[in-house]
Inverse folding.
């Protein structure tokens, strides 16, 4: 891991950094190396110098990520600082770095009178995370608004791509192997009416229906075709069910919250329990929306 050993000029490189500090569930073991580049150039140089054998995980705001308690080997790259700029390119197009928070982008677009971008306010992650997940809210989906994206590969080479290069579906995006998102160009239209007002109404609806004050990753499972994961979980009698410090929310059954002292092991065990119970009760096998990464803690031998 030669490049990881040298200190970046403007960013930060931390060893054994607890990922519980960088995920919205507030659980997760240490990243062997946690790299927060200060600039895009620093990020690209780092990738060019990195030993090709070193595992790499890109992280936005960690709002869809369960990092196991054993932590992450190799390098975690945090995009917020180096890729955190957005600008209006012309009447309808907006360029945003992968590290830009979707909530900030939604507000900027509303102020510029561009829409429909309000749905992005419902996604507490970055543009990079939203591109990876095809994140959506209030009937809007990220890739509906993408004109093009910039990606980078392991060798630090930048590529320009369009939606045609990806297989895109509900919370699903499959693209060229071994590339990560650097930025996206969004195509919007002149907003109809007051977008900021609409955005506030949408956020209030969220507040009323989701346990937003508690650590979670939002919806844990994708909705199966024609149904809602929350309905299936609730009618399987799982609201309030807990394993360790992980609890199925009483407010929204597709949310698992960290009640304070949960471990990633608790959360993953509860995910599996919910999936198995729903399968036994309804005959539907739920598929997790959250990405589960990292190592389990090795059992100490008796
Ligand atoms: C309270 C709450 C409500 C939520 N509501 C919604 C909702 O309404 N709709 C919705 O879709 N989601 C929702 N989410 C989930 C989450 O916010 C989204 O999935 C979001 O897009 C994740 O972005 P992130 O930056 O946090 O990604 P992370 O959690 O950091 O990463 C998610 C995945 O994307 C990858 N990734 C991140 N950045 C890049 C990059 N630049 N290039 C390549 N890969 C990358 C990571 O490696 C990981 O596999 C909610 C979460 C919470 C906590």
């Amino acid at each position: 891991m030669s490049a990881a050993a040298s200190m970046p000029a403007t960013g930060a490189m931390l060893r054994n950094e607890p990922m519980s500090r960088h995920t919205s569930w507030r659980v997760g073991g240490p990243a062997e190396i946690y790299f927060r580049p200060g600039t895009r150039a620093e990020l690209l140089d780092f990738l060019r110098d990195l030993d090709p054998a070193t595992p790499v995980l890109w992280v936005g705001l960690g709002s869809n990520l369960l990092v196991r308690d054993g932590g992450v080997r190799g390098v975690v790259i945090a995009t917020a600082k180096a890729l955190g700029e957005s600008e209006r390119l012309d009447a309808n197009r907006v360029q945003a770095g992968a590290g830009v928070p979707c909530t900030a982008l939604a507000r900027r677009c509303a102020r510029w009178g561009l829409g429909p971008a309000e749905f992005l306010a419902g996604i507490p992650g970055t543009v990079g995370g939203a591109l990876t997940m095809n994140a959506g809210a209030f009937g809007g989906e990220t890739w509906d608004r993408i004109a093009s994206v910039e990606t980078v590969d392991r060798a630090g080479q930048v590529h320009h791509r369009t939606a045609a290069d990806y297989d895109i579906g509900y919370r699903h995006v499959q693209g060229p192997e071994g590339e990560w998102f650097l930025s996206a160009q969004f195509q919007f239209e002149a907003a109809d009416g007051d977008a900021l007002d609409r955005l506030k109404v949408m956020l209030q609806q969220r507040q009323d229906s989701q346990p937003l004050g508690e650590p979670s990753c939002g919806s844990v499972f994708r909705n199966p075709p024609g149904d809602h994961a929350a309905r299936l979980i609730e009618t399987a009698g799982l609201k309030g069910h807990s394993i360790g410090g992980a609890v199925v929310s009483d407010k929204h059954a597709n949310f698992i919250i960290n009640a304070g002292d949960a471990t990633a092991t608790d959360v993953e065990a509860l995910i599996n329990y919910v999936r198995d119970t729903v399968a036994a009760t309804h005959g539907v096998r739920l598929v997790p929306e959250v990405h589960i990464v990292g190592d389990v803690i090795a059992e100490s031998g008796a």
Observations:
- The mean pLDDT is 94.
- The first helix runs from residue 2 to 5.
- Helices lie at 2-5, 40-49, 102-112, 127-133, 195-209, 229-235, 264-282.
- The longest strand covers residues 179-187.
